[in-house]
Each structure stands twice: as C-alpha cells, then as structure tokens.
C-alpha cells in the first residue's frame, strides 16, 4: 500500500522533540505528506537507516508495516518509474515533505514550490494577534473565519486585518467550499515550527 508506506514512514521518522502535526493534504492532482524533522539531503535514498526513533521503527517492523532497510522511498520511486510525473521530495532545515502525483494523470504537472511560496515581504513580522491565528490553524488544520474568531476571541476588525496580512504574506491560504476554509501554507507551517523551536 503506497500511501500506507508513506504515512508509516512519516510517523516513524519524524522528530518528536518538537510538537506539531503530520500534515496530509489530498487534492485531485496529488497527495502530500509533511512532517517535522528533515533528513540529510544526500542520504535520504540510502538503504542504511538513520534511526531517529529506533524503538518506534522496531515496533513497525515487528508489525510488518515497514522494514529495517529504509527501502520505502525507493519502492515509491520504483512504482512511478514508467510514469512521466514523478514523486517529489522537498527538504528544509526543519521539515520533510513528499508529494505523490495522481498516477492516473500521466503527464507532467508543475507544482508550486512550497519552499519558495510568494512572500512579498521577506521580513515578515508575526504580531501576537497573527500568532494566535497561526497557532489555531496549526492545532486544528482547517478552520472557517467564524471558527477562528470564536476560538481566538479576537475583535472582528483585528481578525480581518491580520487575516488579510497573513494571506498577503503567504503564511495561510484557503479553499472555498460554500465558505472560505483557511489552512497554513508550507511557509506558515514552517514559521510555526520555527517559532516553537525558538521558544524551547
């Protein structure tokens, strides 16, 4: 099971010294899995495991959910070998992400680089009110504006001012399903992660 393999790997290899969810995003074009804790960019296809969480990995191996040789990613790329659209692995100092294209769409699709999302203001200032919104989206995943206002207890004027700035800065985005549902972008996710790391 391809998706199961990726999710198990994300759980087994993520960095549990920091708090934050594993994000799974599904669209018509692809499925992406994003987790805390990057890996050595030169070694992430190696058959020798780094074993960040050896006890957890042993449990998954005993349950036959993964093997000890870290061949999961190689299996993924082997499955896509004959297809035009290949999986993508993206690394930052703190985050690991893999994107699995929809195998029924056998044509090249150029996905936006989530590590280089448009950010007009490179010196983004996250005010306490903005941080409240980011933290809520970090904790809940997806929220409507009314849900954020209720949970944050921010004044509507303050909320919408912060919301528009966060959208402009590329820290959050939304999809419309009868109402706007907001979520963190990868840039926003990493911003939250870095904030937590710096406060440790």
Task: Record the SSE blueprint.
Elements: H1 2-13, E1 23-26, E2 30-36, H2 54-62, H3 72-79, E3 88-91, E4 95-101, H4 128-140, E5 143-144, H5 145-152, H6 156-168, E6 172-176, E7 180-184, H7 186-198
Structural write-up:
- This protein is of the alpha+beta class and 200 residues long.
- Helices cover 38% and strands 17% of the residues.
- The protein has seven helices and seven strands, in the order H-E-E-H-H-E-E-H-E-H-H-E-E-H.
- It has helices spanning 2-13, 54-62, 72-79, 128-140, 145-152, 156-168, 186-198; strands spanning 23-26, 30-36, 88-91, 95-101, 143-144, 172-176, 180-184.
- The strands form two sheets. Strands 1-2-4-3 form a four-stranded antiparallel beta sheet, with helices on one face. The chain has a three-stranded antiparallel beta sheet with strand order 5-7-6.
- Strand 1 and strand 2 (30-36) form a beta hairpin.
- Helix 1 packs antiparallel against helix 3.
- The longest helix is centred in the C-terminal third of the chain and has 13 residues, at 128-140.
- Mean pLDDT is 76; it is low at 41-49 and 111-122.
How would you summarize this macromolecular structure in one to three sentences?
The chain is α+β, with helices and mostly antiparallel strands and about 200 residues long.
